[in-house]
Design brief:
Distance between the termini: 41 Å
Number of domains: 2
CATH class of the largest domain: Alpha Beta
CATH superfamily of the largest domain: Metal-dependent hydrolases
Radius of gyration: 21 Å
CATH topology of the largest domain: TIM Barrel
CATH architecture of the largest domain: Alpha-Beta Barrel
Largest sheet: 6 strands, parallel
């Protein structure tokens, strides 16, 4: 169902290799212009879930992952060091993903530490390609050095186990954003599609936001309820982000951001980073994917029983079943539809990219992995975006917000504002 890509020669600049796979029917002159802009830009991606297979499957980023599937769920890999070179990405937020199930099992902090350790170990194994980064200046320096900047963001506030002391330790380890929830409401923040129990943020949740401001850690409003989004915007004195969310006006999904919040993010100075998952981008894809899952549930349950001791066999069988029951997959141009909308509502200074590579089961039609990222730049050029505006979307907006977030933190730390108290709620699980 993906569009055929026409391969042409690779372009090499310093140590950055931008894959030149021109989309079928593309204008060659526009494509070359797009590649020139893409090559020069500092590109920052807000969310990549590759630390999970790095931890669970001992995946080494030096492995050629093209055509590989994740052993645990049978979905394709999107990331490796070579594909990083082809993508042009300089700053990548490695997701320290801690889900609600992990919290319920009682080892959320342990899981976060395992993922952080995996990220450190990859950087240690590949120092010529990867550099652990914590600041906007680090990202700019990595661009000059031709390296990928590995940043870290916690996905799921469960990881701090109700402790500001733990939050501070994660900051010291290099974490520079925290998504306040994943899909499950917890003790101090309500999730986007779960039963609320805090009316947004609890008093402790509001203290978490203040402490993140003081430390210099982005508050990430992806995955949270709309009330939490507004509570965060009421409190935060530094720019916030949505690390991997799209525009709700274009697809009425609870993972997306509505226009009223987009306008508030603009006033806050923050950035909404568009998620590439087709079911978040497009209502038709979302409906067909949900309908297919419901329709095939008896067969999927039967396969699960048949292959209960053979994960690989199960994944192969599921992939075959899905191939026999295809759905509409929105094209990569839909990413730019969401960029257009956020630009129109919030302004060009408040939109970025948050791919969700290796965290989604499939990418838009025409994209196989991060190596195809230049398609987004091509589409922005084709639609008449200026080079300045394209570079803002690709990374400069995030860099500007990050520098401002760091400035707010520095001022608060110097002036003694914010909490230094050791506030810890009882550790609980549902």
């Amino acid at each position: 169902m993906r569009k055929c890509l026409v391969p042409v020669v690779l372009l090499v600049l310093s140590s950055i290799v931008i894959a030149q796979s021109m989309p079928t029917g593309a204008d060659p002159a526009i494509w070359q212009k797009a590649l020139k802009i893409h090559r020069k830009a500092i590109i920052v991606d807000g969310h990549n879930d590759i630390p999970s297979p790095m931890t669970d499957d001992d995946f080494d980023l030096a492995t050629d992952s093209l055509g590989m599937i994740h052993p645990t769920d049978g979905t394709p890999y999107h990331t490796d060091l070579n594909r990083f070179k082809q993508s042009g990405i300089t700053g990548e937020f490695f997701s320290i993903y801690v889900g609600g199930d992990t919290w319920k099992a009682g080892h959320a902090m342990e899981r976060a530490m395992d993922l952080i350790d995996s990220t450190y170990r990859e950087a240690e194994k590949h120092p010529q390609a990867l550099s652990l980064c914590t600041t906007a200046a680090d990202i700019r320096n990595a661009k000059k050095a031709g390296k990928v900047c590995a940043l870290m963001g916690i996905e799921g506030g469960y990881a701090i186990e109700n402790s500001l002391a733990a939050l501070r330790e994660f900051y010291r380890l290099g974490v520079r954003y925290m998504t306040l929830t994943h899909n499950v409401t917890h003790d101090w923040a309500d999730a986007h599609h779960d039963t609320p129990k805090n009316n947004g943020l609890s008093d402790f949740g509001k203290e978490v936001v203040r402490e993140m401001n003081r430390l210099g850690m982005f508050i990430d409003i992806s995955h949270v309820s709309e009330k939490v989004m507004n509570d965060v915007l009421d409190i935060s004195t530094a720019p916030i982000i949505a690390s991997h969310s799209s525009a709700r006006a274009l697809n009425d999904h609870t993972r997306n951001i509505n226009d009223s919040v987009l306008k508030r993010v603009a006033k806050n100075g923050g950035v909404v980073m568009v998620n590439f998952y087709p079911s978040f981008l497009d209502a038709r894809t979302n409906k067909e994917e949900n309908d297919r899952s419901a329709r095939l549930k008896p067969q999927l349950d039967a396969l699960k029983a048949q292959y209960k001791d053979d994960i690989k066999g199960y994944n192969v069988a599921v992939a075959k079943l899905y191939a026999q029951n295809p759905i509409y997959v929105a094209p990569y141009t839909r990413i730019v539809d969401h960029i257009d909308h956020i630009r129109d509502v919030a302004g060009i200074d408040h939109v970025g990219l948050g791919s969700d590579f290796d965290g989604v089961p499939f990418l838009p039609d025409g994209m196989h992995g991060m190596e195809d990222l230049a398609l987004v730049t091509y589409e922005m050029v084709r639609r008449g975006y200026s080079e300045t505006d394209i570079r803002k979307v690709l990374g400069e907006n995030l860099l500007r917000a990050m520098a401002q977030m760091e400035k707010v933190a520095g001022n608060r730390q110097i002036s003694g504002q914010g909490s230094l108290k050791r506030i810890t709620l009882p550790k609980t699980t549902p």
